[in-house]
């Protein structure tokens, strides 16, 4: 009888130790998967535009207004495409790469073709870039969603015609990459030909260079070259985005460059 009681006590003790081990392991595993801190919401607006498009100036003006109203919380980017150049005006900021980027978005959105002005928000949705109602609704919607990742910049320095920077990432980085972007704050252009001939256009947050960076570790160093088209006295900003293979943007940060 005594032996049975001892055996029963041993079984209970072993079971309790095993259960405690399972609970402790589960708690540790959950703790490791929790974020260390909440990430702020991000809103990234990528406007596809052209100086050769007569319907684009209102979208350019709206992006300028958004930039002024939401200086810290919204990342406004102006990509100038090249497929309007045939009309007679060569947009000085246009690149075929930006039209290719837009095409990839529209394949994702099952859109039949590229169009201007088109704005893409966080790589997830799109609409006509001159619609202030849709723009404000998108900013409100995505401005309330916590970002999945976080990017911290450090040691940003300009050496000759290149920008060097260190970065530190938070959150899951598998199957994601970084985009380093140089943005010209603004420039005014007198258009002499094309649909906007004889107009003076003001463009802001113009993408003048972009570079994709593969993520090999959560910390790293990278650089991007400043194009010759940027004047020495022009204000330039560095924006870093993190995105998935499906072009969803999961993090963003920016800093003004001192040259």
Give short descriptive properties of this protein.
globular; 4-stranded mixed β-sheet; 259 residues; Immunoglobulin-like; single chain; alpha+beta; 4-stranded antiparallel β-sheet
Structural features, described:
A 4-stranded mixed beta sheet has the order 2-1-3-4, with helices on both faces. Strands 8-7-10-11 form a 4-stranded antiparallel beta sheet, with helices on one face. Mean pLDDT is about 85; it is low at about 1-35. The chain is built from 4 helices and 11 strands. By secondary structure, it is an alpha+beta fold. The chain has one domain (about 45-255): Macroglobulin (MG2) domain (Immunoglobulin-like, Sandwich).
Most strands sheet: 4 strands, mixed
Alpha-carbon Rg, integer: 25 Å
Count the domains. 1
CATH topology: Immunoglobulin-like
pLDDT averaged residue by residue? 87
CATH class: Mainly Beta
CATH superfamily: Macroglobulin (MG2) domain
Which outline best applies?
globular
Parts with pLDDT < 50 across at least 5 consecutive residues: 1-36
